[in-house]
Design brief:
- By secondary structure, the protein is an alpha/beta fold.
- The chain folds into three domains: about 5-185, Rossmann fold, CATH 3.40.50; about 205-350, Rossmann fold; about 365-535, 3-Layer(aba) Sandwich (Rossmann fold), CATH 3.40.50.
- A six-stranded parallel β-sheet has the order 2-1-3-4-6-5. A six-stranded parallel β-sheet has the order 9-8-7-10-11-12, sandwiched between helices. Strands 14-13-15-16-18-17 form a six-stranded parallel β-sheet, with helices on both faces.
- β7, α11 (about 230-240) and β8 form a beta-alpha-beta unit.
Length: about 575
């Protein structure tokens, strides 16, 4: 751009600041009126008018991240906590591209996030200009709403529509903002209330479900994320019909692991007792779950599927009875007979045997210490109502199995995207949504990916607690290589001293190498009046075994699949 043209644009922007409201102002005002409390991101030239509008608006908080991926993850996990729209932003080109992984987290977990991306001036679009990227095309897959503001008069409507779509449909609403549009004059109008979120009610006939449960002798409840907030109703219902309860990853914490009815998770991260229940049950009641691993669901079992999203009905399971309603509606209106025989009692031996197997590792005093010990001891020391963030990798296994918990805690995972590195930014985002203690379980590989978001925690005094399971390996990948018959390769990690890194940021940091120091270290770490990092050196050879197969069986199973595949070719 020639110098005179650039000076003219700056002059025009200054005149607008004197004369009245800009598109950037309207966007921010509309976000606020739609319930957005925070916007995460990093400044940049193409969104500087938006940054200034945020500066001048006292009703929205700006949170400066250290990488746009971290900002998008922070927004996604705050949205998971609240269910309300949260915004993130990136400047033109690379700043916007960096948002994508965090936005896919929001997309795949169906949480409302507004993504605002900068763009070059409209008169330069199509010129292959500096940092010009076809952002709308790039964001098309991740978004449920994807628009560019091309007229200042439409800014308010587009922004309000984005908030509405993100909330109602559950996902990412994206708006591209050419910088000259942001600087243009605009006004807020009284629109027709599109950002009001309608209450949805469901009507269904409970008779078929009641009859099926009454006829069943061994019903089994399988709960998912749609069961959040229904702990008491689930417990009462399960007790009434004598049903054991198993849960998907994103339903961890809804029911107490210490309840005799609760057998644990299902799948590779789950328990042997849950698999035994699935083998023996004659009726499966799916409460708000779209569990992806259908191989763990018996093909011949009768299924009642309770689902508020019609697109999830029959997506993975051949359900016999479909109940299009919320889990709450189902539990309040389906009133079967009380069963004298409690199927869950038959599985107590299996549950006790599984717990004893877990406790063997949790009580093992060999060194380097086992990661199961860290998760188990931490579970007994965090606050009763803590928010527990679990990153992706081997640490997901330890968090799912060995962090046994009563009701009252909130667990946050990356259950559908399965992204490494979510732990620290997820904790930051969750901490803005609650005053409760936020504790993260993070592998060393994941920690290194997003560790600079600890600076964000420090800057905004978010007192998150991050436990690093340091085995100097990409442990899950190591295990997968072994299972598939490959030599261990490319998984060794050169790590810094993470505790000293934390200290250099100005937050608590401590490194634990001996089991004898662990309990005191956890106590000191949790009591620290700042964000903190507790780095624990753990055994790199501990295998996250599936609940129903030995290591040799896993290898044999995978080898047979590969052999059959080659023979078919």
């Amino acid at each position: 751009m020639k110098g005179s043209a650039f000076r003219q644009k700056i002059f025009n922007y200054g005149i607008l600041m004197i004369m009245g409201t800009t598109v950037a102002d309207v966007i921010v005002e509309t976000l606020v009126s739609s319930g957005v409390k925070r916007i995460y991101g990093i400044p940049g030239d193409s969104i500087d008018p938006l940054i200034d509008a945020i500066r001048r608006n006292k009703d929205i908080q700006y949170v400066q991240g250290r990488h746009e991926e971290g900002s998008a993850l922070e927004a996604a996990f705050e949205a998971k906590m609240t269910g309300m729209p949260v915004a993130c932003m990136g400047t033109s080109g690379p700043g916007s591209i960096h948002l994508l992984n965090g936005l896919y987290e929001a997309k795949m977990d169906h949480v409302p996030v507004i993504a605002l991306t900068g763009q070059v001036e409209t008169d330069l679009i199509g010129h292959d200009y500096f940092q010009e990227v076809d952002i709308n095309r790039l964001f098309d897959d991740v978004s449920i709403f994807n628009r560019q503001i091309v007229n200042p008069e439409s800014a308010q409507y587009i922004t309000m529509r984005a908030c509405h779509e993100a909330k109602v449909k559950g996902g990412v609403a994206h708006i591209t903002l050419p910088v000259d549009m942001l600087r243009s004059s605009s006004v807020s109008k009284q629109l027709h209330g599109i950002a009001k979120y309608p209450a949805i009610s469901y009507n269904f006939d409970p008779k078929e479900a009641v009859d099926a449960i009454n006829q069943s002798k061994k019903p089994l409840l399988f709960i998912g994320r749609g069961s959040i907030g229904q702990s008491a109703l689930i417990n009462d219902f399960a007790e009434k019909i004598g049903a054991p309860i198993i849960y998907a990853l994103n339903a961890k914490g809804i029911v107490s692991d210490f309840d005799k009815k609760v057998l644990g998770g299902l799948g590779l991260l789950g328990s042997k007792a849950s698999i035994d229940a699935m083998k023996d049950a004659d009726l499966l009641v799916l409460l708000g779950t779209s569990f992806p691993y259908s191989a763990f669901i018996r093909e011949d079992i009768k299924i009642i599927q309770v689902e508020s999203n019609p697109s999830n009905l029959h997506k993975r399971f051949n359900s016999s009875i479909e109940c299009l309603c919320t889990v709450s509606d189902f539990l309040k209106h389906v009133n079967p007979d009380t069963k004298e025989y409690k199927f869950y009692t038959k599985l107590q031996g299996a549950k006790e045997s599984w717990i004893k197997e877990l406790e063997k590792a949790e009580n093992d005093t060999s060194e380097p210490m086992k990661p199961e010990i860290v998760a188990a001891r931490l579970s007994r020391k965090v606050d009763k109502n803590a928010v527990v963030v679990v990153d992706t990798g081997n640490v997901t296994v330890w968090g799912m199995r060995n962090f046994r918990t009563e009701e009252g805690k909130t667990f946050l995972f990356s259950p559908w995207l399965g992204s490494m590195g979510v732990g620290i930014p997820a904790s930051v985002g969750a901490s803005f949504a609650t005053d409760r203690q936020v504790v993260a379980l993070v592998g060393d590989g994941s920690f290194a990916m997003t560790m600079m978001e600890l600076i964000t925690a420090r800057k905004y005094d978010r007192r998150i607690k991050v436990v690093v399971f340091n085995n100097s390996k990409l442990g899950m990948i190591k295990f997968e290589q072994e299972v598939m018959g490959y030599p261990e390769w490319g998984v060794d990690l050169l790590n810094p001293d993470f505790s000293k890194l934390a200290q250099s940021i100005g937050i608590y940091g401590r490194r634990v190498e001996k089991l004898s120091d662990l309990d005191a270290a956890i106590d000191e770490f949790l009591a620290a009046k700042s964000a903190g990092v507790l780095e624990v050196l753990v055994n790199p050879d501990e295998k996250p075994m599936p609940p129903k197969l030995s290591f040799s069986q896993v290898k044999g199973y995978v080898t047979s699949i590969l052999r059959e595949s080659l023979m078919e070719k």
